[in-house]
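re the bet — no i am not wrong, look at it urself. input seq straight from the record:
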Amino acid sequence: MLRSLGQRPVTGSDEDPRVTELRTAVSRLRRELAAHPAEFTDRAIAEDELAALAAMAVGGMPEIPRLRRSLLLIAGAIGSVSALSRGLSDVRQAVDLFGEPGR
């Protein structure tokens, strides 16, 4: 039936797997941060930058310099919160999949 309408069945995604990995890691860290009971000075910065990363991942291919800037801000904001270190590490690994920014 789909073929008669000129459409093809969805068997997989054309999305870049790096973007998928980034979206997954960011989503996980956002949930962990939301569940973290302690308030800390730069929590709002971390939340804002995670929202920016999530928006970039939804928008398709993110800009590498912007990804790295957000990662640095997030790391600075929550780097000392040991309970969030695994999630932060996952986000860093996802950003690293995009390689180095062009110079």
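see?? The chain is about 60% helix and 0% strand. told u. also The CA atoms of residues 56 and 62 lie 5 Å apart. so pay up
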